Amino acid sequence: MYKSFSMELAGRTLTVDVGRVAAQANGAAFMHYGDTVVLSTATASDKPREGIDFFPLSVEYEEKLYAVGKIPGGFIKREGKASENAILTSRVIDRPMRPLFPKDYRNDVTLNNLVMCVDQDCSPELTAMLGSAIATAISDIPFDGPTASTMVGMVDGELVFNPTSAQREKSTLSLTVASTKEKVIMIEAGAYELPEDKMIEAIFAAHELNQKVIAFIETIVADCGKEKHAYIKCDTPEELYADMVAFITPEAMEEAVFTDVKQVREGNIREITDKLTERYQETHPEWIPLLGEAIYKFEKKTVRKMILKDHKRPDGREITQIRHLAAEVDILPRTHGSAMFTRGQTQVLTITTLGALAEIQKLDGIDENEKTKRYMHHYNFPSYSVGETKPSRGPGRREIGHGALAERALVPVLPSEEEFPYAIRTVSEVLESNGSTSQGSICASTLSLMAAGVPIKSMVAGISVGLVTGESDDDYIILTDIQGLEDFFGDMDFKVAGTHKGITAIQMDIKIHGLTREIIEKAIRRTKEARTYILDDIMAPCISSPRSEVGPYSPKIVQIKIDPAKIGDVVGQRGKTINAIIDQTGVKIDITDDGAVSVCGVDSDSIQKAIKLIQTIVADFEEGQIFEGKVVSIKEFGAFIEFAPGKEGMVHISKISKERIDKVEDVLTLGDVVKVVCLGKDKMGRISFSIKDVK
């Protein structure tokens, strides 16, 4: 039965149609927010997937260009692989939803969001987040929801909720907060050095609004929600777990996992696995396929108990202690900039490349505000960084997400295009990984940009804190600088990047049903302490400020302004003039509609030559100006001199030599380079030159 539900949300109408479309999905919500339309569906398989020890959740966010009245560019006129924005949106939908499914649920679940119409004032990403939560909540899929999400901006110092397109353009904050009925479950943020107190205020203002949305969703669920279906539980058999613990002993497991060397720990767990495999080979062969999950459970309980009860970390550190840190610049001799940042067994090398503005990335998506990207941060996570072997298949969703997080953290401190007219790309190569490589890439990228001579406004550092919780809300411990094991077995990975002044990026992943305000406030303040230490004691001694100029192998860019009315003169018919300048000098030239001309090249002399040619082309020619040019045509009455690409003037035969000559060829030949003085324009409007009157 078709039912429609509506509420006012941040000054616009949110409407949810249930039973109107996609009736065969387990749950479907046809979402309208303003004129934005998204179809959100939730489907699950009838049976669990065999042979897996994880919950197989897939989240899809499909951008259709018809939603904004576009036909896809290129030869193939249909949408191809997901854009970066689609991948990042899928991740931000996944993160608050995943913890709320049963931990032992092994049925395949797909949350699909089809963007069908876009109103730029009503975010399709937010609409999809709400749609996924509603579709799952009303379905028969086991889910401990609902959740709600709110976007927060800051315009002129004031918080705005679910900002419009115009507000997003001016906003100094881009924050997304997802909540359950009791707690905050996901935070994603980018900000222009926002103080910690302001960020906390914004987070909980969003959480308060989320409660109104959750109340609205609960009315939908009460009206048309399906009864949740039963499922096959996939937990470790109690008999197996009890026998394993008695045979290995908690003391032996503690000794196996508590070491500061990841490879030693993994070797110890392999030994335990081999012992148990041998033990059950004959007596309980049916248990052998279940050993991986059983050992994981035993290892997790051991680590969590030691951290929570004894305040003992696997590598022996104090609760607030950061692993050994090191920073270096100029690792690679001929790149434009390079730096390496090491934190314990996490090591990232970032390379900076500078280019002409013509090399900015062009975006073909559904966001009308974002058409180009001047700064690009890419992140690579090869298998050797964790001691594994597998072929490289290009960046996955995790790599794209980590790259975007680092990019978001650094954008607020980058110089403007007018201050530094370059396209900028940084690539973070993870060389070794044991926890929080994304934050390591932020530190390495900051150093690399400074080494490349990019005049960033402030240094940015990133750090991650973790969490282990007990039975109650006030039974928890926050860990500074979590390593892989603490992330794996802990409840939270709270990443915060920023400068001395404030926060530039946040990403919070949790595995539990949300965080209290007390935990969030303490986590944010803990990252501030750690960030300050990294900035002052590790990064500043390595390189204290951006280099005053770009390196010898970097392109040099010089900008000049010309009259916009003369852009056509510089470009020439079908680009003939500008291409001639490029051919002569070997530079790259970009011209914007307002007359800003950027000349890019490695050799300063070539740049100056190109600038001189451009200035010559756009000059208002006056009597007495001296030029140097090449003889390109000889006639009976004189010669034509090309003094800049596409620009010629004529020297009458009487103005070639101080002595009388019978033929032009007696003095000049094609290709001769001569100096001429401008005599003004003749009756036909052509520029008239003299060779004999040059002083």
From TrEMBL:
GO terms for molecular function: 3'-5'-RNA exonuclease activity; magnesium ion binding; polyribonucleotide nucleotidyltransferase activity; RNA binding; transcription coregulator activity. It is found in: Cytoplasm. Its cofactor is Mg(2+). Mg(2+) binds at residues 487, 493. Keywords: Cytoplasm, Magnesium, Metal-binding, Nucleotidyltransferase, RNA-binding, Transferase. Residues 223-303 form the KIX domain. One of its GO terms (cellular component) is cytosol. Gene3D superfamilies: GHMP Kinase, N-terminal domain, K Homology domain, type 1, Nucleic acid-binding proteins. Residues 624-692 form the S1 motif domain. Pfam families: KH_1, PNPase, RNase_PH, RNase_PH_C, S1. Its EC number is 2.7.7.8. Transmembrane segments: none annotated. It is an enzyme of class 2 (transferase). It catalyses: RNA(n+1) + phosphate = RNA(n) + a ribonucleoside 5'-diphosphate. Belongs to the polyribonucleotide nucleotidyltransferase family. Involved in mRNA degradation. Catalyzes the phosphorolysis of single-stranded polyribonucleotides processively in the 3'- to 5'-direction. PANTHER family: POLYRIBONUCLEOTIDE NUCLEOTIDYLTRANSFERASE (PTHR11252), POLYRIBONUCLEOTIDE NUCLEOTIDYLTRANSFERASE 1, MITOCHONDRIAL (PTHR11252:SF0). NCBIfam families: polynuc_phos, PRK11824.1. This is Polyribonucleotide nucleotidyltransferase.
